Request: fold
Amino acid sequence: MTFKRTTVTAALPYANGPLHIGHIAGAYLPADMYVRYLRLKRHEVAFICGSDEYGAAIMMRAKKEGISPKQIIDKYHAENKKAFEQFGISFDMYHRTSEPIHHETAQDFFKTLYEKGEFEEIESEQYFDETAKQFLADRFIMGTCPKCANENAYGDQCEKCGSTLSPSELISPKSTLSGAVPVLRKTKHWYLPMQKAENWLKKWILEDKKGIWKTNVYGQCRSWLENGLQARSMTRDLEWGIPVPLPHAEGKVLYVWLDAPIGYISATKEWAKQKGKDWEQYWKSPDTRLLHFIGKDNIVFHCIIFPIILKAHGDFILPDNVPANEFLNLEGDKLSTSRNWAVWLDDYMRDFPNRNDELRYVIGSISPETSDSEFTWKDFQARINNELVAILGNFINRILVLQHKYFEGKLQGLGKDRIDFTDENLRNATGKAYDLVAENLDNFKFKAALQAVMDLARTANKYLTDTEPWKTIKDSPEKTADSLNNAFLLAGHLATLFQPFLPNTSKKIFDFLNLKSEFFWDEELIFEANHEVKTPELLFQKIEDSEIEQQIAKLQESKKPVFKPETAKENIDFEAFTKTDIRTATILEAEKVPKTTKLLKLKLDTGLDQRTVVSGIAEYFKPEEIIGKQVCLLANLAPREIKGIVSQGMILLASDADGSLKFVSPEQAVANGAVVK
Reply:
């Protein structure tokens, strides 16, 4: 089917932190390259994005920084919008889910589905933090992932293995608000019974999209559908969010994964209002194609949950394709915002000013299209120096230098008014490059498309080397002029083909060639006889070793642990404190407790007696290393049996920033049994 227009969405980034290259590689750069390609083909397109400003992640950031959620979203919306603009992501609309038009749109969506009977009202038990006195959103619960044993998995997702989870699946869950073990309490919510949509989803995805959707996307959807869908809550007990528009729903908000995708629609409404267009054409017309660019962690929401919601509403089109990317790793490790293991977009643009296209090129070349890929600073340097500088930049510089050296910067007509290819191999290679780029971009294969353009640049360099215009100038200046004419035609076509990928570079080349700054793909690129090109300038600068070493050092610095104190416990009165008996003691003997990995059996001299204490320190200390160590002992802790051994007290240790344990000992040796006051 031929579509009249395309609505392209890119995943709404949470307004709770800055952007990094993983975000760019996952959704925004491929979406931007594709949209630029459509525009160059004169296709009508709306490129929609915006800040996702509700949900638990925003509240977590606000609590961490000690400010309000509104201050958080205002700060990061502005920062991320500016970063996208500076990097050249060409959204038609970058909106906000905190805007009134979005509240209205999301609540109308919910009410429509509610009135059509699409929700189930279910009372269930959910985790409640008795210390913080509130129900816990999924992101406020952490525990051990049941699938990969990651101890820091969230209640909705494990960021290590990428599995989608529910809080009840976590092993040993804890509240991130207080550190307390949450309890289950009854609450009422509105659920979307996704299992009712299984039949049409299986036909639509497993049959109609087979061989069309990317293998990684299709595979994840098939796994979900084959395992069976379940009802999913569309509301949450949360302070920060869009209120559920029903009576007796105080304190309940729309689930962020209902709210956020509808943000695409409200953003389109706002864009259309500003442009005097009909927004419904972009979401309801059958001759419109809908595309979602996302990362792999959002596949299920865009391919299953959001389509169910759209179809349940009744008059919206479904996504034609969801070209989701996998993850971009960094220097042998997964990108992590919490660990600061990332290349932040703002930092990159500050450290490498006016080199945005270089990063676009590298990320485009290693795009994680169907499997995870890896960014390293050494590879970044190599691709820029060995490809952009040595191939594309070298070619453009050489022909400009030669044209000015031999012909005062003017292209020679050689008896004709306009200049055209005289080498059929070059003409065919150029035509083939256009075909390859179009074919690959139409199928969301950005790496292959970019490679096809760079291969044409290699062909251009080889042509120059083979024809040797610097030699033929002596005996046949016409041959030199002809070679350079062909070379300048190649340069113009390279600039045209690179427009979706390296827009700033294309503009520079067009400027060097003294042409207008943009060419549509159906435009004829013409040089008239005596066309004058500009004086040579370097297209790219080499990346020096010192620049790379600085970036690697910055990353390594982020690996150093930062100490974060645990949440303070409730106050006790002085009388309660005086009941504790903390004394100095010396370790006389130490041995591992059989069939355990963490426990040591210690014999202590307390000055009053010799007693046994079992301590979970075997992972941090070898028994022979701690004999003779003076420690602090909580001496009046009630005895308890551990692995068949009666432990009489507890030695005191402190947890360092990296999680390791350190003894709490007197600064100078004192008599065993000295009271710690």
About this structure: Residues 5-136+177-325 form a domain with the Rossmann fold fold (CATH 3.40.50.620). Residues 377-407 form the longest helix (31 residues).
